[in-house]
Design brief:
This protein is mainly alpha-helical and 110 residues long. The chain has a single domain, classed as Arc Repressor Mutant, subunit A (Orthogonal Bundle), CATH 1.10.10. 49% of the residues lie in helices and 8% in strands. It contains five helices and three strands. A three-stranded antiparallel sheet has the order 1-3-2. A hairpin with a 5-residue loop joins strand 2 and strand 3. The longest helix is centred in the middle third of the chain and has 18 residues. The two termini are 14 Å apart.
Length: 110
């Protein structure tokens, strides 16, 4: 929740919260670019590193994807991810409209 002065807290939409996670816009861009519904997490890590100059530490990108970004997108219903190595993009129609509301890369933010 975001506290707002002079009013009640505002609850963010779950999809907006999910696409605001580190590298989430890049993860979604991967599926768009390659017109695929599935991806290996290692391929997503490489894609993020290739497209975000701040993503210089592969272990950090891997940890953020595994423990923050992919679970958040899964909880919002955008993809299927159960802590394994394969990700399935389920609902691009739910994700795409929210991507314009966040930075183009989403790198490094929690």
């Amino acid at each position: 929740m975001i506290p707002i002065t002079n009013g009640p807290p505002v609850e963010l939409h779950p999809m907006l919260r999910a696409v605001s996670r580190p590298y989430a816009p890049l993860v979604c861009r991967y599926f768009r670019r390659y017109s695929t519904e599935t991806a290996d997490v290692d391929d997503l890590v490489r894609f993020v590193r290739d497209h975000d100059e701040r993503a210089t530490e592969p272990d950090r990108v891997d940890i953020l994807l595994h423990h923050v970004t992919l679970p958040a997108l899964a909880a919002a219903g955008a993809l299927d991810y159960s802590s394994g190595d394969t990700v399935r993009y389920l609902r691009p129609d739910l994700v795409e409209p929210w991507l314009d509301n966040v930075s183009g890369d989403g790198g490094g933010r929690n």
